[in-house]
Amino acid sequence: MAQPPQIARKVRLETARYVLRTVEAGDATAGWSQWLLDPAAARWLNAAPRAASLDEIRGYIATFDSMKSHLIGIFEKDTGRLIGIHSIYVDWPRSEYLINVMVGESDARNQGARSEARPAIHQFFMEELGLEASRATVIAGHPSLAGMQRWGWAVEHKSLKPSASGGAPVEILHMKLTRDAWRRAFRGTDG
């Protein structure tokens, strides 16, 4: 079983186009503060559209300890611009982690950032840290759902949550990706 770290562990990973690293308070930007104003982003997060203050963002960043919780930014290599985040919560006793991903900059969406970052993130958490599974929740109908299932994610159960927009309840899919399924999908091996 994976063992929790005794000290905070900052993350820095690279892909062809992105640097994935632990977010620091100085990474809070005016652009980030506008991410949830986009109705499409708010809808898929089941959140009310609103701007966040830089102090709110810095407060959010401060809640991550880099041991049981990690906030990993997706930074463009060419520009250094923060375009999205992974918020990851590790359950060491269960040897799994809950992952949430948001590409917040609208011009960076649907450009492959999630797909490019995915192998590096799971490699780190499953292979380097030794965790056995990842969990995620996804709103039914989300565009990434078909791809997630192709990559080995399985729906464990469904639930309903009140809609942030006041409409009909939102169906939430509770999904799990095991290390074995990840290895098969991303590395072409059974272990």
Any idea how many domains? 1
**Strand order in space, largest sheet:** 1-2-3-4-5-6-8-7
The CATH topology is given as: Aminopeptidase
The named CATH superfamily: Gcn5-related N-acetyltransferase (GNAT)
Would you count the extended β strands for me?
8
For the record, the CATH architecture stands as 3-Layer(aba) Sandwich
Order of helices and strands: EEHHHEEEHEHEEH
Give the C-alpha Rg: 16 Å
Mean pLDDT equals: 91
Roughly what fraction of the amino acids lie in strands? 25-35%
**Quick one: biggest sheet?**
8 strands, mixed
Unreliably modeled segments: none
Q: What is the top-level CATH class?
A: Alpha Beta
Give structural notes:
This protein has 191 residues and is α+β, with helices and mostly antiparallel strands. The chain has a single domain (12-187), classed as Aminopeptidase (3-Layer(aba) Sandwich). It has helices at residues 30-33, 39-45, 54-62, 113-128, 145-150, 179-187, and strands at residues 12-14, 18-22, 69-76, 82-91, 96-103, 133-139, 154-161, 170-178. An eight-stranded mixed β-sheet has the order 1-2-3-4-5-6-8-7, with helices on both faces. Strand 1 (12-14) and strand 2 (18-22) form a beta hairpin. The two termini are 16 Å apart. The mean pLDDT is 91.
Mind sketching the topology for me?
Blueprint: E1 12-14, E2 18-22, H1 30-33, H2 39-45, H3 54-62, E3 69-76, E4 82-91, E5 96-103, H4 113-128, E6 133-139, H5 145-150, E7 154-161, E8 170-178, H6 179-187
